[in-house]
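Homework-ish question, so no full write-ups if that breaks the rules, but can someone show me the predicted structure for this set?
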Amino acid sequence: MENPLIRRLECFVRLSHDDKRLLATAASQRVRRLGPREDIVVEGDPPRDVSLVLDGWACRYKTLADGRRQIIAFFLPGDTCDPHAFAVREMDHSLATLTPVTIAEIARDTLQDIVDASPRLARALIWTMLVTAAVQREWTVSLGQRTAVERLGHLLCELFLRLRAVGLTDGPSCELPLTQVDLGEATGLSNVHVNRVLQELRGSGLISLKGRVLTIHDLQRLQAVALFNAAYLHLDREGRTLDANDAR
Amino acid sequence: MENPLIRRLECFVRLSHDDKRLLATAASQRVRRLGPREDIVVEGDPPRDVSLVLDGWACRYKTLADGRRQIIAFFLPGDTCDPHAFAVREMDHSLATLTPVTIAEIARDTLQDIVDASPRLARALIWTMLVTAAVQREWTVSLGQRTAVERLGHLLCELFLRLRAVGLTDGPSCELPLTQVDLGEATGLSNVHVNRVLQELRGSGLISLKGRVLTIHDLQRLQAVALFNAAYLHLDREGRTLDANDAR
DNA sequence: CGGCCCATTGAATTGCCTCAACGCTCGTGG
DNA sequence: CCACGAGCGTTGAGGCAATTCAATGGGCCG
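A: Not a homework solution, just the prediction itself:
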């Protein structure tokens, strides 16, 4: 199977054969397998190498002194955890797996070499960082303004589209290996309320969620209900209106 | 008065004379003055040059279809708005002034020249991006987990420390040119409730807030109340424990 | 002086939370 | 093979934090 990072970057730029080879070799140097619910890095640690998720789901989270926990981001296959984090002295948050995960650890220098070798890849990597930031902003909007139904609906839309971008959906369905507690920690809701909201979404025929499989029966309508606007995912390839300019 | 960006970057690295000159000239090429409550860029626009706030307060915000509005970030003097935003086709959020603002518009190429000329400046600029991202994550935690009192307390701590980092505090006081509506839009609370919470904070002797001046009487205690941990601001100069290594 | 923006206050409402209990499924060990 | 416990989902009841609606007052500007 092709490296999901390649698939992800190709949402943005068309990669040359060489680009792909560069990425593929970098991502195969040091591959680690982790179990579910395992910390990768914890708050206070010095930053490690860049981690690229090859398979499975992980998350970024932060814990308050009294134990309250907030999931800050989800990492899906093809996502990188903080390409530049090494610029700070210690991590201000933790990373953990949710499912069993395969990650590729890419050394700082390797990454630098890639960036130097291919301006196109450099641009693509910056693009992933911008999208990560945009997602974080959208979560801020969700938590600040959206109701519980909208928040959950929005999150499901986002995850579905992100998975689809790396080829991990099956028609209207995708895996959703999150518990209701996880969903609550990501949306700032209690697990009890998550449960009731999911029932509401199921009841109105928008989704099915059974076992670990999510099916979105009417993506359009779910997006409308959740006030979801996909623009922030920047899934449109940059060159589409600017192809002539690609040489730059 | 010295350029506030210089002061800000010096929180992180010690800049050479040349570095400062580079920055100072870049920031003086195109200076714009804006009134209060003016949009700088709106959602859907193509990204412009990088804007550096020289004076005044601005914000990033997003509006939902039905008018609900969330302030996503505050820009204080010395902050840059999205050094890399030009990598995407259209803005997914808006920027607006809150007070009268002076900004320096720095062209993409100028920025590139600076980065090429000084690796130290390049690192410092990456650091500002990381801090911006860290602040965004902390807002996610606030909105998701903190109570109204904690949220407002946390925001006040953050703003105060960020202002102090660029020399804009006066002992325990600083300017806070935000209305209670603004504070509500940033914290996801109604302006009515913001009002009541502020009274609570005043009542317990933690702060004064009168006119546009905030005074934090007991920063330690306010931090404790708000579960505030300044680590995410990464205000410690990178070299402090690594000075010997500065040559790299 | 009149009008507007902002802060403040009260009252009624509600979205979501907490607490508590129960059922299901699955893996494990006796 | 069945018993048992753990983790997760589900349900009900009661409570509280924060909201909405509405009205009032102060300060500033034209």
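Now go work out the reasoning yourself. Hint: The CA atoms of residues 43 and 92 of chain B lie 5 Å apart.
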